[in-house]
Design brief:
It is a single chain. This protein is of the alpha/beta class. The protein has helices spanning 13-23, 42-56, 78-81, 103-113, 127-135, 164-168, 170-177, 188-191, 198-205, 210-230, 240-247, 294-305, and strands at residues 3-9, 28-35, 62-64, 118-122, 143-149, 183-186, 252-257, 259-261, 272-274, 286-292. Helix 2 links the parallel strand 2 and strand 3 (62-64). It is globular, with a radius of gyration of 18 Å.
Length: 309
């Protein structure tokens, strides 16, 4: 049976590629796509999810969620993703409309309707997930697993300590990491291994399909920021790691650790504090991604994106 998932995202170039992988994978049943502010504002992330579905020719309901963090002021990443959040390719006007139901209520409804069967896959800030847990605590023991892109066991990318998705709303992240739900974290220490170097981008363009070309154009725009800031010849495809883990877990090396969120202002604000050497004596609460089989990862992406015509 396909695994039921809700993809909670803030498209975003790498979110778009994660959506492509999820929707082309028979191992997964995408119950819906929920959107949250993050890379850009909610009005853009919700619109972008509909745009990606239009390009793919897929019909999946999209629900808009939180437009701001629980406590802190909103930050965003237009300098990485452009003002629209999906700069680079020419984008169509979507024909589908957003669902009227709020994303948080949709998450609650689906988890309670399928207890123990729904995996949440947040590839943006964790605000929607935390709000759902606070609004209806009964969902917490009913969530099968949360597989997220966010955090890091070492350095940050938006501050010296913090990865962007967690830094967007550290208080929401703390609620999720403290919840007791089985967690799998695809952090920067893992996702930075997935650089889309020119020869890898060429594989998508070589598919000879509109979606393959769209993917290549996304990655070429995404590369510009990473070249300027980090000196890299390709961008990481962060968010697709979370989907790939569900589809091909054997591609990943993971280990259980205790991970806590620093939600106090200061140099470590938003850090995912990983007890790598197990010095605290605290029980592990998170399966942490450590290594990915790069050839297998890209083979999977190219194979699945190649299914779109």
């Amino acid at each position: 049976m396909p695994r039921k998932i809700i993809h909670d995202c803030d498209p975003g170039h790498d979110d778009a590629i994660a959506m492509m992988l999820a929707l082309a994978s028979p191992e997964l049943e995408v119950l819906g796509i929920t959107t949250v502010y993050g890379n850009v504002g909610l009005e853009h992330t919700a619109h972008n999810a509909l745009v990606v579905l239009e390009i793919l020719g897929c019909k999946v309901p999209v629900y808009a969620g939180a437009d701001r963090p629980l406590v802190r002021e909103r930050i965003s990443a237009e300098l990485v993703h452009g003002n629209s959040g999906l700069e680079g390719p020419d984008l169509p006007t979507p024909t589908a409309k957003l669902q009227k139901q709020h994303a948080v209520h949709f998450i609650i409804e689906q988890v309670l309707s399928h207890p123990g069967q729904v995996t949440l896959v947040p590839t943006g800030t964790l605000t929607n997930i935390a709000l759902a847990m606070r609004l209806e605590p009964k969902i917490i023991p009913a969530i099968q697993q949360i597989v997220l892109m966010g955090g890091s066991i070492d350095i940050g990318n938006w501050s010296p300590s913090a990865e962007f998705n967690i830094l967007c709303d550290p208080h929401a992240a703390k609620i999720v990491f403290d919840s007791g739900v089985p967690l799998m974290m695809c952090g920067l220490n893992l996702t930075h291994q997935t650089l889309a170097l020119p020869e890898r981008v060429a594989r998508f363009r070589g598919l000879g399909t509109p979606v393959g070309e769209f993917t290549a154009q996304l990655l070429e725009f995404f590369r510009q920021h990473h070249k300027q800031r980090f000196g890299w010849e390709g961008p990481p495809i962060h968010d697709a790691c979370a989907i790939a883990f569900l589809v091909r877990p054997e591609l990943f090396k993971t280990r259980l650790y205790n991970v806590e969120i620093e939600a106090n202002e200061g140099l470590a604000y938003g850090r995912t504090v990983c007890d790598y050497w197990r010095v605290t004596g605290k029980a592990p609460n998170t399966e942490v991604g450590l290594e990915v089989d790069l050839e297998g990862f890209y083979d999977l992406l190219v194979e699945r994106i190649g299914q779109y015509r």
